[in-house]
Design goal:
heterodimer, A: mainly beta, 6-stranded mixed sheet, 5-stranded antiparallel sheet, B: mainly beta, 7-stranded mixed sheet
Chain lengths: 114, 112
C-alpha cells in the first residue's frame, strides 16, 4: 500500500538551475510532510518540512510547496549545486500524541551536473 | 551537534541467530523509531516507541522483533531468529516532539 509516491526515480539538472522534486500522497489524513536527503550508506538527513496549514515553506535554497487539494508536494532547490546530488525522500505523517509514523516515498535520485 | 548514533555499522549473522541493534537517541528526545530499508527499496516503518512502550508498529514488526529502552539512553531492536529477508539497513530515529525525526547512520544487517 504505497501511500506516498515519488514517480520520478531519477532527475538530472545542470548546476545553477532549479531542481524540482515531486511527491504525491493518497491519505487525506496526512498533515505533516517532510523531505529527507540521503547519501549511500548513510541515514536520511532532515531537510525541510511543512504542515498542512501552510502551502509553502522556505529555508535558504530549499522551498517546499504543498497543494492539499491535489495531494501533491514538491521540493524546489535553487540554485542547484553538485553537493545536492543525493537521493531525496518525501515523507508524510499525521498527528498522533504517541509519535507520528512517517510514510516514505521511494525516493528520487538527483544528479547535479557541474 | 547532537546526533543519533547506531552500533554496529555492519552486522553479519547466520540465519536463525539473534541480533541486537543498538541506538543512542538524542538525549532530550522523547519519541523513538526503527525503520529499515531493503536494498533498492523504500524506507519502511517498523515501530515507534514513546513513554516506555510501543505506540505503533507495522505488519513487518512481528513476534520476532522487540524493542527496549533498557537504561534511559539506549534504544535497542532485537530480532530473535533472523531470516535471510531481514537483511537490510536498519535506521534508528528520534524526535523531541513527534514531528520530524533525526536519523542515525544505520546498521547494515546481513543474514547469511
Amino acid at each position: 500500500d504505497q501511500q506516498v509516491k515519488q514517480n520520478s526515480p531519477s532527475l538530472s539538472v545542470q548546476e545553477g538551475r532549479i531542481s524540482i522534486l515531486n511527491c504525491d500522497y493518497t491519505n487525506s489524513m496526512f498533515d505533516y510532510f517532510l523531505w529527507y536527503k540521503k547519501y549511500p550508506a548513510e541515514g536520511p538527513t532532515f531537510l525541510i518540512s511543512i504542515s498542512s496549514i501552510k502551502d509553502k515553506n522556505e529555508d535558504g535554497r530549499f522551498t517546499v510547496f504543498l497543494n492539499k487539494s491535489a495531494k501533491h508536494l514538491s521540493l524546489h532547490i535553487v540554485p542547484s549545486q553538485p553537493g545536492d546530488s543525493a537521493v531525496y525522500f518525501c515523507a508524510a505523517s499525521y498527528l498522533s500524541n504517541t509519535g507520528n509514523q512517517f510514510y516514505f516515498g521511494t525516493g528520487t535520485s538527483l544528479t547535479v551536473i557541474p | 551537534e547532537p546526533e543519533v548514533t547506531q552500533t554496529p555499522s555492519h552486522q553479519v549473522t547466520q540465519m536463525g541467530q539473534e541480533v541486537i541493534l543498538r541506538c543512542v537517541p538524542i538525549s532530550n528526545h522523547l519519541y523513538f523509531y526503527w525503520y529499515r530499508q531493503i536494498l533498492g527499496q523504500k524506507v519502511e516503518f517498523l515501530v515507534s516507541f514513546y513513554n516506555n512502550e510501543i505506540s505503533e508498529k507495522s505488519e513487518i514488526f512481528d513476534d520476532q522483533f522487540s524493542v527496549e529502552r533498557p537504561d534511559g539512553s539506549n534504544f535497542t531492536l532485537k530480532i530473535r531468529s533472523t531470516k535471510l529477508e531481514d537483511s537490510a539497513m536498519y535506521f534508528c530515529a528520534s524526535s523531541v516532539s513527534g514531528f520530524g525525526a533525526f536519523f542515525g547512520q544505520g546498521t547494515r544487517l546481513t543474514v547469511v
